[in-house]
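Q: Entry one of two.
A:
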Amino acid sequence: MLAGNFYNITQQAQEPGQVTATIELNAAHPIFQGHFPEQQVVPGVCMMQTITEILESAVQKKMLLQKASIMKFLNMIDPVKQPLVDVTVTYKEEEAGLKVTAMLKREDKTFMKFQGIFK
């Protein structure tokens, strides 16, 4: 679990089928010693785990990624220069599971776009 250590949620709002949150990244987290010491970058797997955790908090159950049809990393996140990131997760129940669309961005800069199925 990354919440409370790698990042903290500073703001969160939920409505049926959607949750939005602003997270504050912990630039002092040990993960950045290896990714990368001179140029800290949030790993893609951490972005994906953040989406999963915010989805789980919204639906109040553990979720497992079944299929990722879109997973685009558009810009790097330097936690020193960009400590705040806005996360939007939209979800809808379908036969295959929860269809999820998510985005990590801040103002006019999009860091990641995701679409897939969770169960």
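Q: Entry two of two.
A:
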Amino acid sequence: MNFLIFIIIPLLIGLYAQAKVSGAYSKNVQIRSRRGITGAEAARRVMSSAGIDDVDIVEIEGHLTDHYNPTNKTLALSRENYRGTSLAALGVAAHEAGHAIQDKEAYAPLKTRMALVPITQLASSILPIVIFGGFVLFGGASGILCMEICIVIYLIMTVFQLVTLPVEYNASARAKARLQTLGILDEDEMYGVNETLDAAALTYVAAFVSSLGWLLYMLASRRD
């Protein structure tokens, strides 16, 4: 029962979230914005409105690989969003620009998230080794130690995903507001942006639920 509640249900939520974002993006990437502004142009305008002129906007390969790197002040957009003029492209580009604005304003959740990145990456990298060790050393002191390490790892990952939620939702809110106030999109075009970004946000909720589910499952297993 614990496996169903803590693992399977979060897994289904994750699959639903991925299907939702894929469907929303595929739909709205086909709807061209009225003014024909590209994602790169939209990102530049959004950042300029906040007085940001030291961030490079670069084109990268991949599908929905868009991200903002506060370390080297780079906003990376996948080709379809960098060059695209669709509602989906503008929404994603403006969302990443929202992260740049967070960085400039020293938005606390973003700073916390960045501080957690190194330890979260380390935890994620050693998790498979610890899980494998737990299977091999099932039972006894060594097996118990592996479970305790897993609990710490999932705790780190859960905290990271929890902190990520306000970062992503805030960036989307900034994007939606500026796309309209800057005249990049008209009010009747915002439905496509809202649908795309709201679906994307659901994937972060699913990631948090998944991490929390594994943490609770490990805690319940230790108790049993």
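A: Comment on entry two: The two ends are 13 Å apart (CA to CA). The chain has one domain: 2-223.
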